[in-house]
Amino acid sequence: MEHVQHLVRRQFSETGIPLDECTVDTCPLIDSATGYAPSMGGNLIFVVLFGVLIFPQLFFGIRHKTWGFMAGMLGGLILEMVGYIGRVQLNNDPFGEGPFMLQIVTLTIGPAFLSAALYLCLGRIVVVFGEHFSRLKPRTYSILFVTCDFFALLLQAAGGAMASTSDNGSSLQDTGINVMIAGLSAQVVSLLVYITLCLDFAWRAYRNRDNWVPKHESLRRTVLFKAFLCALVISTLAVFARSVFRVAELSEGFDSDLAKDEVTFMILEAAMIGLAVILMTLLHPGVAFQGSYHEANFRMRTRSGAKTSGDVTPDDMAQP
Is residue 39 over pLDDT 60? Predict the structure, then answer.
């Protein structure tokens, strides 16, 4: 790949000192891994934010038994918190290779867990409005996109492991970064397909408003449920924007202007993910579905073809 060489960080500072021997007293800050000392206050805010949000996610997850959603959100929040702890450490030691790789790996992988949590919501939304509007079965959305997300996560985790355990500037580290980029790219494609299918379902349902499933009419009319739908859209777009940014950032290399721009990072990485997790906590699906979260569940059909909770039949459409 043409960009392989510029992913490799320089081995020596402008002063001639090996980078792994640099300190703030011996080398200019621009030679550090990030090119700047990450803001203590800004990054500490996100450490606290992601750490604090773990507790309401645990509470709502256990109370409403939203196990899959809870697992995805907790995995993402913990990794995000650890990543920003790494950035706080870089404020004290901008040349620290350990904290640098810690934040690169955890902040790259974390949103994949958050994406999985978002994917799990679509199937239930389809059940609430009507499966007959969807091109796929509700269960297919979860199986398809969580599988894609898992594949992207494996690539990112494998690449992160290779990059963090290899020598700085080595070909193995370079390979690891390229694998991480492949994983991020897979996540971007998955999110783009997901957004496309969401738009398709929304349009088909909107055009046939008179044929929405009567069973969940009272839920659909509530402000809380409508707010949840808006929050899900914003959260998905935020995670998508962040993922596109990280692909561009890693593709240009650690020494690129984009990789050394903290303001851009804090807006397109920290703020985007922060916005998504805040919305998905304030408008948690277990709360937004108002007791109907499991009623809107989707299950596999039995071998005999018996209807289960997620399957809609013509008789359902005829209910008063």
Answer: yes
